[in-house]
Amino acid sequence: MGRQAAYVLCLAAGLGLLIASAASAKPRAGETEVTVRPVADAKTFPLVIPLPPRWLNSPVTARDTTGRVYSPALVNSGDSEYYGVLLHDLRAGEELKMIAKKRRGGAPAQAQGPTARVNKSGDDLEVTLEGQPFATIRTNGGPKPYVWPVWGPGGVEITRNYPMKDVEGEDKDHPHHRGMWFTHGDVNGVDFWAEGDGKGKIVVRSVKTEEHPDCAIVKLADDWIAADGKKVCADEQTFVFWGMDDPRVIDVFLCIRASEGPLTFGDTKEGSFGIRVPKWMTVKAGTGNMVNSAGALDANVWGKRATWVDCWGTDGKQTSGVAIVEGPGNPRFPSYWHARDYGLFAANPFGIKDFAGEQAAQAPIAIKKGEKLELRYRVVLHSGDAGTAGIAPFADLTLQTPKR
To answer: Which DSSP string do the residues of 128-170 spell out, in sequence order?
Structure first.
C-alpha cells in the first residue's frame, strides 16, 4: 500500500497508557503498520485502527513484533471500516509494532482472554462474557432500541431498572431514561428523546451479530419515525463488546443518514448518547460521585464541555463505576454534557444554549439529503473509582481517528 499520512495519538502525562504512531518505514505492499509505545503497563487494551479504503470488506490478520498473531475484528460504521484487536501484557517503554494485512486463508487466531458471545432470545440480544451476563440489547421493548441491563465487573448492574422493571426504593422519574441509549430531542422538529403521544419512535429494521476471538459485535439498522408515521431518517448503531473483564469496554459507533431529506439537529439539552445509573450510584441520593476530564465534580459536571464523564459509587459491597468517553471526530468535540446528580449522564453534541446560554448558541448541525453524520463513543465499566480505573487512556488513544 502507499505511504499513509503520519499520525500520533498522545495521552495526558501521568494518566497516559500508550503512544501510537504510524511506522516511519514504508510497509510492504498490502500491509499497514502501527507502532505502539506504552508509557505505562497494561494487562489488556482494546485498539481500534481505521483501515485503508480499498481494504473494505476484506478479512484481516495482524501480528506484532513479539510474534503474537491476532485475528482483528472488522467493524463497519457508515462507509468507514476499522480493525480492532486486544493488546496484551504491555510493558512501559517497550515498543510494539502491529502489522496488519489482508488475510488470504488459514484459521483465525484464538482468543487470549475472556470470550464475548451473543445469544438471540426473542427480540433481545443477550451478550455474555465467559458465560456471565454483560449486556442485553432490547430491539422491541419500547419506542427505541436500548441496552439494559448492563453489568460491570463482578456482576454489578450499572443501569437503572425503571421503567422496564419495578425495584423497591428505586427512582421512577423520566421513564424515557432506558438503560443506555442514543436519541435526540429535536430532529427536524420531532422529539425522539421523550416518549408518549406526539413523540417520535426509532424502529429496528434489521439486526446483525458477529463473534470474534477478541469481541462480539451487534449492529442495528433503524428507522426514525415521526408521530404521523413519516420516516425522518435512518441510522446504524454498532456495538463492540470486548473480551476483557475489568474494566469491561463497549465501543459504540453511530451513523445517522439523511435518507429522506435534509436533517437538522435542534439546539436542545435533551440528548443524546446517555446512561441512567441506579440510585445507589447517584450523587443526589446515593453514594455516587461524578468527575469529568476537566476536573469538574458532581453537580458541576452538568453543562460543561468534556471529553469524558465518569460516575461511580458503592452498592454496599463494592465500588463500581461507568464512564462515557467520546471520539474527537464527533461534531463540536468536546461535547456539552447533560449530566444530572440524580443519575443521568449523556454526551450532547447538538445542544449549546441550554448549557452555555443564548449568547453561545450556534447554527444547528445540519446534513444534506443523502449525507451522513458519524459519532463514536466508548463505555468503560470498571471497579473502583475513576482514579483507580484510569479512564483517560481509554478515552484518548482508541477513539482517535487518524487521517489517511
So the answer is: EETTEEEEEEESSSSSS-EEEEEB-GGG-B-S--TTTS--TT-
Per-residue pLDDT tens digits of the chain, which is 404 residues long: 222 222 122 222 222 344 444 433 345 666 777 777 766 677 888 888 777 766 666 777 788 888 888 878 888 888 788 888 888 887 777 778 888 777 766 556 666 778 999 999 999 999 999 999 999 999 999 999 999 999 999 999 999 999 999 999 999 999 999 999 999 999 999 999 999 999 999 999 999 999 988 999 999 999 999 999 999 999 999 999 999 999 999 999 999 999 999 999 999 999 999 999 999 999 999 999 999 999 999 999 999 999 999 999 999 899 999 999 888 889 999 999 999 999 999 999 999 999 999 888 889 999 999 999 999 999 999 999 988 887 766 665 444 443 33
The residues with which 128 forms a beta bridge, in sequence order, are 117, 133
CA distance 214 to 84: 8
Question: Hey, is 388 helix, strand or coil?
Answer: helix
User: Under 8 Å CB-to-CB from 310, ≥6 apart: which residues?
Assistant: 290, 291, 292, 321, 322, 323, 380, 386, 389, 391
pTM of the model: 0.90
Q: What is the distance between the alpha carbons of residues 113 and 115, in angstroms, rounded to a whole number?
A: 6
Hey, is 362 helix, strand or coil? coil
Enter the C-alpha cell of residue 296. 469538574
Asked if residue 21 lies in contact with residue 49, where contact means CB atoms within 8 angstroms, the answer is no
Cβ neighbours of residue 141 under 8 Å, at least 6 residues apart? 123, 124, 164, 178
Give the Cα separation of 118 and 185 in Å (integer). 31
Pairing assessment for the beta strands 96-102 and 365-367 based on DSSP bridges: unpaired
